[in-house]
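Sat 14:20. Reprocessing the chain from the morning session after the first attempt stalled halfway. Input below, unchanged.
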Amino acid sequence: MNARPPKYASVVLEREDHVATVSLNRPEKLNAMNRILIAELIDALRFANRDPDIHAIALRGMGRAFCAGDDLDELKAQDFTEAALEASLADLQHVTRQLMLQGKPTICAVQGWAVGGAFSWVLNCDVALWGEGAVGFLPEMRHGLFASGAATFLLPARAGHGWALDVMTSSRKLDAREMMEKSLIARVVPDRDLDNALAEDAKRLAAFPPAAMRAYKNALIAPIRGAIEQALEIELQECRRVILALRARGDV
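Finished this time. Tokens:
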């Protein structure tokens, strides 16, 4: 018998019909990321990727938002050593590796907000469902920070260099229409139907022969795997550099 899914403080992991559903569970903070949430998310995704009985992984957020990006209040309150900062940033990049590079199909459902690193998770998933009222954006430039989750490669690769540069430097908000126009999401779903659509689509993905699905995903990722890893490393170093610079000025 397979191991029972772990229990977490900021993430809920459920397993049913060969699907692992990972739910971000800080609704009072719009599921904003902190160190605990990221660590638990990585652990939940690793559990799902290692369990042979799980054939597909679904990612969602509880409450009014998918994820509102970094918890800036906690970021400002923490006194990281350089080593701890680098470890924290590396953990953030590991989420992308778990979503993109492990061979199992991943699907997400986005309601409310998908901000910063969480917007990158939408790009990381094989299938993204977008609520009619959902909005996504990359605010890092506004705060003097840097993008993560291989967004610096994935966004221009899918939507074009000029458009991606505008989105990343202007921090402008993207609605369902523009996300569909740029082929960044699979389909738009009425907000009230998102949970049902996520469950149905995840079950459909899980119904395919697992070995065949893994082979397809690995084949599709193979030509860009090196570029993804390169983007993740560059982003990590740039995030580290700008945060240390902001801290030296007393801004973080």
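The chain has a mean pLDDT of 94.
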